Amino acid sequence: MRNHVVLTVAKGLIVGGTMLVPGVSGGTMAMILGIYDRLVTSVSSFMKHKRQSLFFLALFSAGGLAGMLLFANPLLALIEAYPMPTLYFFLGAVAGGIPVILKQARIERFSWKVPLYTILGLLAILLFTKLPMGTFQAEADRGFVQILFLAAVGFIAAVGLVLPGISVSYLLLLMGQYDVTMKAISDFDLPILMPLAVGLLIGIVLTTKALERAMKRYPQTTYLIIFGFVAGSIVEVFPGVPAGSTLLLCLGLLAAGFCLVRLLSRQEMKA
After folding, report:
1. Who's near 186: CB < 8 A, 6+ residues apart?
2. What number is the average pLDDT over the span 65-76?
């Protein structure tokens, strides 16, 4: 029991700490750490297992909040100072989680579905990341129209929060609301934060319910598309081929990221 608690908080720390890393979504990290299914089920079926779901979500959220406060800024500083080695560590972490995703897909034999659905997921992420900033930007008047608009922004951000491979910060940039949201958070501007929070909550519940249904009815298709999402995030994060003395450091961090995630994934299976 204690091991399970520590593991859940540790995974929350990692997800929270990496959410602001460019190209890395919280859903991606949760998926490669092998905790994604539990998160989706705990939210979408909360009323069926209130006590267990509340305990699990509280542990994960506490770890996630601590991760954002403790590690987000240092990680962003590391990426700014040492972009290639840091991003190679994340590439190794993503690669370490691929066996978990493929196992969930229940691929018993190779068929045309494997490359097709993977490519569909990959293309969806790549096309999404090619959209110019502010593509869906809209001006909303003060009053009820603005409240509805902010709730819609929160709803769309929830999709990015739940689905692997989609960055919430990138979605906010596409809608022209990144600076507005960051300023509202720093100023604790409740007239802006409240509609965003309501839209976010509704979006998370509806998205997780749809995902849970898809995972149960069409597990192979769903996980192969998610695998494509994750592969798309790898392409987005890839910083290029290192040269000189940086090569050994990048390879070492690649291996370290891979081993860390494999270790955490095995512990999850034992817990």
Report:
1. none
2. 78
Long-range contact set of residues 41-48: C-beta below 8 Å, sequence gap at least 24: 41/212, 43/204, 43/205, 43/208, 44/205, 44/208, 44/209, 44/211, 44/212, 45/212
* CA–CA gap between residue 258 and residue 99 (Å, rounded): 11
pTM beyond 0.85: no
CA distance 79 to 40: 30
3-state SS assignment for residue 260 = helix
Cα–Cα distance for residue pair 43/206, rounded to 1 Å: 10
Rounded CA-CA distance 60/11 in Å is 7
Give the DSSP H/E element, type plus range, for residue 22. Answer: none
- Please calculate the CA angle 34-39-43 and round it to the nearest 5 degrees: 165
Q: Which amino acid is at 238?
A: F
159-173 average pLDDT score: 73
Confidence tier at 116 by pLDDT (50, 70, 90): very high
Nearest to 67, CA basis, from 27, 16, 7: 16
